[in-house]
Write a structure and sequence with these properties.
This protein is an alpha/beta fold. It has 2 domains: about 30 residues; about 100 residues, 2-Layer Sandwich (Nucleotidyltransferase, domain 5). Helices cover about 40% and strands about 20% of the residues. Strands 1, 2, 3, 4, 5 and 6 form a 6-stranded mixed beta sheet that branches. Helix 3 links the parallel strand 5 and strand 6. The mean pLDDT is about 85. It comes from bioreactor metagenome. This is Dinitrogenase iron-molybdenum cofactor biosynthesis domain-containing protein. Pfam families: Nitro_FeMo-Co (PF02579). InterPro entries: Di-Nase_FeMo-co_biosynth (IPR003731), DiNase_FeMo-co_biosyn_sf (IPR036105).
């Protein structure tokens, strides 16, 4: 078999894989499980990330909420919350005001941060996240 025929066979194999395997991988990525953490006070988004009473941890799969729990965070000290929430499997933080250093620490843990979200009930924020309508604004925290 000459070089051109071998290349043609490889191209055919690649095209086959692209048509069959790629959509499956892409679909799995879209519908993967996500765990969001929302800092709350009285079950509404707390405007200052580090001063919340609790975190609402919401597990989402296939665009549906499959579990929710409120957890009391450990005492606030620099670097503690990113490690604690990463240990809970959190993939996304949704916050009002959050410091740039905290955002960097979450990013180091492969946790995506949405900042500048307006105060409203945690469940509404979760539904906005699921539906792709989450509103973010300027991050009101300056440290």
């Amino acid at each position: 078999m000459d070089f051109m025929n071998k290349c043609s066979l490889w191209v055919q194999k690649i095209l086959y894989l692209q048509k069959t395997i790629y959509p499956i991988i892409n679909q799995k990525y879209i519908f993967m499980k996500q765990i969001i953490a929302i800092p709350t006070s009285d079950n509404c988004l707390c405007s200052h990330f580090g001063h919340c009473d609790q975190f609402r941890i919401i597990e989402i799969e296939n665009k549906e909420i499959i579990s929710e729990i409120s957890l009391t965070p450990p005492p606030h000290e620099p670097g503690v919350l990113p490690a604690w929430l990463a240990g809970k499997g959190v993939t996304h933080i949704i916050a009002g005001g959050i410091g740039n250093k905290a955002i960097a620490l979450f990013n180091q843990q492969n946790i995506q941060v949405f900042a500048g979200v307006p105060e409203k009930p945690a469940k509404e924020i979760a539904m906005d996240f699921i539906n792709g309508t989450l509103v973010t604004g300027s991050n009101s925290c300056d440290h």
